[in-house]
Amino acid sequence: MKVLVVNAGSSSLKYQLIDVESHKVLAKGLCDRIGADGPFLKHGIDKDEIVIHCDLKTHKEAIEQVLALLVDKDRGVIKSLKEIDACGHRIVHGGEFFHGAVLINDEVKEHIDECAILAPLHNKAHLMGINGCQELMPDIPHIAVFDTAFHQTMPPMAYMYAIPYEYYEKYKIRRYGFHGTSHKYVAGRVAELTGVPLSAQKVITCHLGNGSSLAAIKNGKVIDTSMGFTPLAGLVMGSRCGNIDPSIVTFLMEKENISPRRMTDIMNKESGLLAISGVSNDVRDVEKAADAGNERARRAYDTYAYRVRQYIGQYAASMGGVDTIVFTAGIGENSSRMRSIMTEGLEFMGIKIDEEKNKQARGVEMEITGEGSKVRVFVIPTNEEYMIALDTKKIVTEGLTELEE
Questions:
Q1: Whether residue 103 sits in one domain with residue 18
Q2: CA distance to 51, 146, 154, per residue, from 99 (Å)
Q3: What integer pLDDT is reported at residue 46 of this predicted model?
Q4: In a domain, 152, yes or no
Q5: 6, 385, 390, 396: least CB-packed within 10 angstroms?
Q6: In the annotation, is 37 catalytic?
């Protein structure tokens, strides 16, 4: 089965054509600056990549260009668009409506639009991508896969905020969590690699990149996750502050005469590793600066690791133990040094990593469990697009309208 995976942003559209049975990415690319000056399309895999400057006024025009490339006689990977069996759409926010992937119909699109109040920059763009794809490929099923869906198994004690209840009822202010597709993918791989079903495991998945989050998965269901009402909450991230005392926000707004929009930008784009280090939002740059003697960079690096370590302990307590820990995404997959620091001092919980294996694990799937460790530790590269393709296939082949997590 061939699935076209689409991730539409406000002025961009990422895509992959995936053969699900062979796990093979046939083509991938990015349409950028849609509706703006200087639009272009980057298409191809690894070194076999081309950049095409073309007119992309709308998402529909971008998709037209993509489909034309997929069947192009020189650059194409399929002979006909009829070879595309389904289209899977990544949707950031499903609110409380969606607990799994769904077959897209008018009602689903209405709910995605309703959730735009929770993710205004994303959900409206996703709808433009969906509408464009449906117009150009009306005869295939289109499936929505939500970043928030995997976390919808959280109990109220984990997702409720202790603010007046009317705000939950009126605006649905609660913890939602994000990166769900990534957490779901690596958790599934844990079950395959250990031979133990998720329903019999307590797993902590650590998606650590420029945006970072952890999830506590007990017996196959998420019981807590570090991101909250928005992706701003939880860990210290590249340029996001993570959890802070809420009064800091109002204090600074009053003292510095900062508007709500400006305060949001400060917390999302000017905080995190970037703010503490004064160097960069990239952990690699921060690490180099710390090694060169930059004290602020050292403080930022240690703070990032400390917060992850805190959450690991917190989630082990929440689940009554932990069987497996997984590191994924840019930092989790590639920084052996950060993994070492993040697990340092957790021996009392039965967590030990093998430092030699840890150093070898860079962007590859590998177990790094140390001798005598009671907890198994893995590095597993995430593959959100493939997870979207898998969920899409399941809906289509099993004739489902909704996939329960």
A1: yes
A2: 38, 8, 11
A3: 67
A4: no
A5: 396
A6: no
Question: Is residue 268 included in any domain, yes or no?
Answer: yes
Mean pLDDT of the chain, nearest integer: 92
243: number of Cβ within 10 Å: 14
110 and 250 belong to one structural domain: no
Q: Would you state the pLDDT for residue 405?
A: 67
* pTM for this model (two decimals): 0.91
Rounded Cα distance between 147 and 176, Å, is: 9
Counted residue by residue, the chain has a size of: 405
| Residues of the domain holding 36 | 2-146
The CATH number of whichever domain residue 120 belongs to comes to: 3.30.420.40
Q: Are 136 and 81 in contact (CB under 8 A)?
A: no
What are 18's strand-pairing partners? 3, 25
Other beta carbons within 10 Å of 170: 9
Answer for the pair 226, 235: CB distance below 8 angstroms, yes or no: yes
**Number of domains into which the chain is organized:** 2
When pLDDT is cut at 50, 70 and 90, the band that residue 58 belongs to is: confident
Pair 217, 300 in one domain: yes
Q: What span, in angstroms and rounded, lies between the C-alpha atoms of 250 and 152?
A: 30
Query: Residues 15-41: what's their mean pLDDT?
Result: 90
Catalytic residue chosen out of the listed positions 32, 147, 224, 391:
147
- For the record, the structure tokens of 102 come out as 């769904």
Cβ atoms within 10 Å of 239's Cβ, excluding its own? 20
What separation, in Å, do the N-terminal and C-terminal C-alpha atoms of the chain show? 22
Tell me whether residue 137 is in a domain. Answer: yes
Judge whether 174 lies within some domain.
no
d(CA 355, CA 370): 8
